[in-house]
UniProtKB/TrEMBL annotation:
Gene Ontology CC terms: cytoplasm; ribosome
Swiss-Prot/TrEMBL catalytic activity: L-lysyl-[protein] + 3 S-adenosyl-L-methionine = N(6),N(6),N(6)-trimethyl-L-lysyl-[protein] + 3 S-adenosyl-L-homocysteine + 3 H(+)
Listed EC numbers: 2.1.1.-
CDD domains documented for this protein: AdoMet_MTases (cd02440)
GO biological process, one term: methylation
Species per Swiss-Prot/TrEMBL record: Ligilactobacillus agilis DSM 20509
HAMAP family: Methyltr_PrmA (MF_00735)
Protein name: Ribosomal protein L11 methyltransferase
The protein's role, per its UniProt record: Methylates ribosomal protein L11.
Location in or out of the cell: Cytoplasm
Amino acid sequence: MEWTQLLVKTSMEAKEAVANLLMENGAGGLQEIETDEQAVELVTYFPAEQNLQELALELESKIKALTTFGLNPGQATVSLAQVDDASWQTAWEKYYHPTRLSRYLTVVPAWEDYQAGDDLEKLVYLNPGKAFGTGTHPTTRLTITAMETVMRGGETVIDVGTGSGVLAIVAKLLGAKSVLATDIDEEAIASAKTNLELNSQALPIELKVNNLLDGIEQQVDLILANILPEFLLPLMPQAYANLNEGGKVILSGIISEQKAKVVQALTTAGFELEASFKLGDWYGLVAQKPRKGE
């Protein structure tokens, strides 16, 4: 299969803002290549049949416009290159290595021979597939930090917008009783299925092609959503309806300037904000559905 590599040259200062722009335009997994102390290259891949010329021009314009927000975007160039499956796989293998996500969790590329350092270290094996995520992005780390904070074991969980399936896998490793993982993209679900097969210790996990929580009526203890704010906002009332009393929602994918809007939407839906986690320019939020009488 043929792929198109999209490469952005920018500054370390503008890296998080550029990563957000890429995510908003369909990028999942991102390779980060530091070229010097001030500059960085961000690389992602799209199927070759997708016409990216217009997107590349639009991204370059938006990256250069970051100066209006007080950020120096550096070179601010976007380039495209065609690659085949072999080159794409080689690129991932060159830049994607075992990464400790938290005190107890390490994400490991499927092709790496990696041994846990001790009995407490839990391993999540991933193949990035069609760039549906490597599990190492700050938004994933924030979600996992929040999960380790609130999970005690035995929870029923829904992972909305599962992508690579990493959060669903982590939920089971942290002791979840059951996990339903949904995504609107059938190819994302196929990617997640591949990753679940690499993590037999986390099975069973139910996968479902679904738009947010549309048509899902089950009540659960915890809902995870590491997705863009434009999708988080309509999810809020759905999440509230699908949570047990006292249940919690963990949200991520929130860039700094969008935090206030997301918090307001949480409050409007009836949630009580419990905690906020920050990593770089990204935020993760934990909110609870109040129990009656509280």
